[in-house]
Amino acid sequence: MADSTSSRQRPSLGQMRNNSFLQDHQQYKAPVPLSINQNIGEVLGAQLDDSLSTLTNPIKPDTERVTDSGVIHSLFNHQANQLPQGTARIVATIFYKSAHPVHPHFHPDVSPALQPGDKLPSPRVPEGSAPTDDMEKIPREPPAPEPEPLDHLYGPYVSQLCLTNFLQTLESLPTPYQRTNSSHRCLDREAHPRVVEVIFSPPPDPEYLSFSDLRKHESIWRFEREWNVEVVLQQESVFRRHKRLAVFDMDSTLIENEVIDEIAKFIGVEKEVSDITERAMNGELDFSASLRERVSLLKGVPADVFDKLKSVITIAKGARELCRALKALGFKMAVLSGGFQPLAEWLADQLGLDYAVANHLEIDPATQTLTGKLVPSKPIIDASQKRALLKSIAAENNIPISQTMSVGDGANDLLMLHAAGLGVAWRAKSKVQLEAPTRINGESLTDILYLLGLDNEDICELSKESK
After folding, report:
1. Are 335 and 447 contained in the same domain?
2. 106 pLDDT band (50/70/90 cuts)?
3. Distance between CA 182 and CA 168 in Å, rounded?
């Protein structure tokens, strides 16, 4: 006897093929109620009839089971993410380090500039990445792998891919996740820019990631290493663009020399003084104690040594242009130096600065030589004194601290850098680069003007105005 179901034709593979795999398997379709009296053949037949009845695939979500997530998957739809007026914004100024390639050394076998048999250079710690760059003082642990230098692949400038990578890095930081609005402009040139300004908002929630931690975030540090750039982050405000007071360190900032080392050359104690100076600037020694120790080595030096030093002092690249531009903008300017007053006053005259404050060396009136001591009635210009002078000069000129800027390179500048509205560690010692609010290692001090939102056209106009 033939089975009662043998007459029912089972669907063939060809019959099961239809125009939409999604229609058969999509998650939104309500399940077909299964009658207790239906067998599997009837169910399959019903589904097949439904699929053949239409060639379209309208997806009709079950509103009781499916809700809109609110997430819009779009890379370019900016209109869908309007932020409330007054939302905080952050400015990132990206500098390409054209004079400091990440991997300047190549193996002799592959570099035409080197001869076969040349030895590879000694390993070194990247500047600013550790409290010391002395390999003997680094713990004997395997170094972290260096990121691939992507600027070698995509161009020695802030490329479009570099900028895209930076925005991706920013979007990965906020917790919980939030979409970021951003805009950018090239500050020096449109094609192959060296300096690019990016404004983005909203910033990460400070409860999860504070602004000070954002500045030192490991993801941004890695981005800098990969693309051979430096990123300076500032909170956007009218006072970011309109500063009114700038104070500078002198030695290794406005000038390329360390004055006390130059004096030491006259009496043959340069090595002893330079070692103490280096340790003091790295924060390894108390500044006041180290200053007295160095000054004691200068006993007997003729008092007119400062006049002789003027011919060997080298004003830092871009210092004159920077000061002229700031003067044209109406800035008050000061040099606050842990060096010595005669040269600070000479430098202020050269650069048109309004204030010059430094240490005073005691002079023996009978012999007109240095006694090896500081003038007791004058304060030592150490870290706390520099910060106090910054605040007092600002108060004297009725300038809010948010409209001040400080620039320095040594550990005795850190308090001043943190106190100012913008504190810039300029080509600073390793410890200072790690602890300062911002850092730049450019070739010219005029790079600081970019941090005020000025572009090349603005800087050129200021230079003409100041002449």
Report:
1. yes
2. very low
3. 11
Residue 138 — pLDDT band, cuts 50, 70, 90? low
CA distance 393 to 293: 30
Residue 227 lies in a domain: yes
374 and 227 together in one domain: no
Tell me which of 170 and 134 has the higher pLDDT.
170
- For residue 64, is pLDDT > 80? no
Q: What is the mean pLDDT of the chain?
A: 81
Active-site residue (options: 151, 188, 251, 413):
251
Percent of the chain residues past pLDDT 90, beyond the cut: 53
- Which CATH number fits the domain that encloses residue 213? 3.30.70
**Residue 134 among the catalytic residues:** no
Q: Is the pTM of this model over 0.85?
A: no
Q: What angle do CA 205, 210, 212 make, to 5 degrees?
A: 150
The DSSP code sequence of 216-262 is T-HHHHHHHHHHTEEEEEEE-SHHHH---EEEE-TBTTTBSS-HHHH
CA distance 394 to 448: 20
Residues 223 and 251 in one domain: no
Residue 127 within a domain: no
Beta bridge partners of 91: 199, 234
Task: Please tell me the distance from the alpha carbon of residue 244 to that of residue 329, in angstroms, as a whole number.
Answer: 8
Nearest to residue 286, comparing CAs of 204, 398, 383?
Answer: 383
At 160, give phi and psi (nearest 5°): -65, -40
From the candidates 151, 249, 413, 447, give the one annotated as an active-site residue.
249
Whether 251 is catalytic is yes
